[in-house]
Amino acid sequence: MTMHSRPADRAPLIAVAHGSRDPRAAATVEELVHAVRLREPGLEVRTAYLDHAPPTLASALCGLDEAVVLPLLLTAAYHSRVDIPAALREASARRPRLQVAYGDTLGPHPLLVGALERRLAEAGVTPGDPGTAVVLVSAGSSDRRANLVIARMAREWARARPWWSVTEAFASAAAPTPEQEVARLRRAGAPRVVVAPYLLAPGHFADKVARDTREAGADVVAGVLGAAPEIVSVVLERYGQAVRRPAAVATA
């Protein structure tokens, strides 16, 4: 099934996050959604979670005839390509009159590097410092395409700034691990090694990355992206794109 109908310009936004058993993750998502509401006070924004936290996407869609569903995910992989479309097909089967536009994932987007640099600056790192090697840490995916996006993002960031280097690492499902990359950079003679988590919210991955990379010799580990102003801007841009050009919901 494909969603063909175009929702009205102010269709409610359903922001779908991964979900976590760690309550800090939902609190961070709610902080981000609150910031979106403050930026666009006329827009109704609801949250939904794929796992571990309520409400489900079906519950968030309750009572609506139209909506824009936006994945609060940093890369397009299994959740955005399979899980959310499946949930939308199920919701539509129960409610055939429901009109949904499905938005793109947050990344890749140029503003996300700005959010990463914001978090590094908050941790005391001067953006573009030529004596600093940056490890860009993604959650990682079994989908090779998603990991290649992170590798390309690291290369482009390195070209845009005079860092000592920018290289990618993955908290799961792919190599190198963050601690492996920190250790490699230390052996390579990097004067200073800092870690930039490409993670939206705190939780298991963020804690493990911080602990393991510090043990491996990282000088600084920045905070997660959270409700950075750049993230708010990307959310609203993706919403606008979905309203103007609704994406088809995949059937597989």
UniProtKB/TrEMBL annotation:
<keyword id="KW-0479">Metal-binding</keyword>
<dbReference type="GO" id="GO:0046872">
    <property type="term" value="F:metal ion binding"/>
</dbReference>
<protein>
    <submittedName>
        <fullName>Sirohydrochlorin chelatase</fullName>
    </submittedName>
</protein>
<keyword id="KW-0456">Lyase</keyword>
<dbReference type="InterPro" id="IPR002762">
    <property type="entry name" value="CbiX-like"/>
</dbReference>
<dbReference type="GO" id="GO:0016829">
    <property type="term" value="F:lyase activity"/>
</dbReference>
<dbReference type="Pfam" id="PF01903">
    <property type="entry name" value="CbiX"/>
</dbReference>
<dbReference type="InterPro" id="IPR050963">
    <property type="entry name" value="Sirohydro_Cobaltochel/CbiX"/>
</dbReference>
